[in-house]
Amino acid sequence: MNTKNTIEEIRLANLRLLIEECPAVTIGKKVYRAGSAAAVAAKCKTSASYLSQILIRFQNPSGKVREVGTDLARKLEKGTKKPIGWMDIKHDEVEPAESEFRLIYAAMDEVQKAALLEHAKLISKIGKK
User: Which domain holds residue 122?
Assistant: First the structure.
């Protein structure tokens, strides 16, 4: 049975995916580690503490669990340059190789990413002649 069928669970899974994909972020002299909630928060101009509370399913005194609401979802999409609505659609059901590729890609600089794209274009032409 799939337990990730509510919008709250989908957004939580996608927040985890954004964190996994996030490269290191430098703002001024401060460097936020790749793959961290702090890097996503810095990139999206939101609170790292709040993202951490969402990730650990923190409950406030009234018992309500912190969640990625609509406003935060749009803010995360904007900051990570994802299309509007991206946070509301499942993206976490990927093959292990794809997940590993995302981690490697997130750690690359722009020159490495461009080189990888060129290699991928060359590889995709093999066998099509």
Answer: 94-129
